[in-house]
């Protein structure tokens, strides 16, 4: 395969830096089937432990199904609010954290630990790599959708048991991600929770260590040490 051109690389980084978790900008326009197929195929080409490809994609448009899922969200949001400090609880409850009914399509992405039998290369020492593989599919889907101008929102304030019942999942199937997909009127400049001052964006320099945990500088890493302290994404915004 040929190398990526500078234009192609720029497009990839642009998708990464402008990807957003969309909750409140969906518009009532259906996603074209060919676009949806491309997005799903990109997700299906994600890396997976032992090439196990342990995902399934459940596509949902039925308003009745969406409504049942939203009921679970509302219940879980209230329940989870009890874990929030009183000073932030009101703000938490006011946040728009899902677009279940507004988005054109909901997709539940699941994990099947039984696919290709009980032994999967690379999973025996770290069983969670199966779940990690499904998360890679989610990221592929998200970036492909962004390149197609389709917004995606991950709804994680849900009961997995409720999802299993609503969607008729077999006992051994694990729901990993419930996503809302649709056309949007804009992609926000910043993530919603950053704009709402819920949490700040950490700088790259604050999450990079050298050789061992907590070591923030090493003579062998001088150049990268300096580079991670600069704004590397400016050229692709």
UniProtKB/TrEMBL annotation:
What Enzyme Commission number(s) apply to this enzyme?
1.13.11.79
Q: Which GO terms describe its molecular function?
A: 5,6-dimethylbenzimidazole synthase activity; nucleotide binding
Question: Pfam families per the record?
Answer: Nitroreductase
Q: Where is the Nitroreductase domain?
A: 16-183
Sorted alphabetically, which keywords does the UniProt record give? Flavoprotein, FMN, NAD, NADP, Nucleotide-binding, Oxidoreductase
Identify the PANTHER family for this entry.
IODOTYROSINE DEIODINASE 1, NADPH NITROREDUCTASE
Give the matching NCBIfam families. BluB
> Under which name does UniProt file this protein?
5,6-dimethylbenzimidazole synthase
Organism, by scientific name, is: Candidatus Nitrosotenuis uzonensis
Q: Which gene encodes it?
A: bluB
């Amino acid at each position: 395969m040929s190398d990526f051109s500078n234009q192609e690389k720029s497009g990839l980084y642009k998708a990464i830096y402008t990807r957003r978790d969309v909750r409140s900008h969906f518009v009532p326009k259906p996603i074209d089937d060919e676009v949806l197929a491309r997005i799903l195929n990109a997700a299906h080409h994600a890396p997976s432990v032992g090439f196990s490809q342990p995902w399934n994609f459940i596509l949902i448009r039925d308003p009745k199904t969406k409504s049942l899922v939203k009921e679970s969200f509302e219940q879980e949001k209230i329940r989870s609010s009890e874990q929030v400090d009183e000073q932030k609880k009101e703000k938490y409850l006011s946040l728009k954290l899902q677009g279940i009914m507004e988005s054109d399509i909901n997709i539940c992405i699941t994990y099947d630990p039984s696919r290709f039998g009980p032994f999967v290369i690379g999973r025996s020492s770290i069983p969670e790599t199966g779940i990690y593989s499904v998360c890679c599919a989610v990221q592929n889907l998200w970036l492909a959708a962004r390149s197609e101008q389709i917004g995606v929102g991950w709804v994680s304030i849900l009961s997995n048991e409720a999802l299993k019942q609503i969607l008729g999942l077999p006992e051994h199937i694990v729901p990993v991600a419930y996503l809302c997909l649709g056309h949007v009127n804009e992609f926000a400049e910043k993530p919603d929770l950053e704009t709402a001052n819920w949490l700040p964006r950490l700088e790259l320099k604050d999450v990079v260590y050298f050789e061992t945990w907590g070591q923030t500088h090493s003579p062998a890493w001088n150049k990268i040490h300096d580079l991670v302290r600069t704004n590397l994404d400016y050229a692709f915004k």
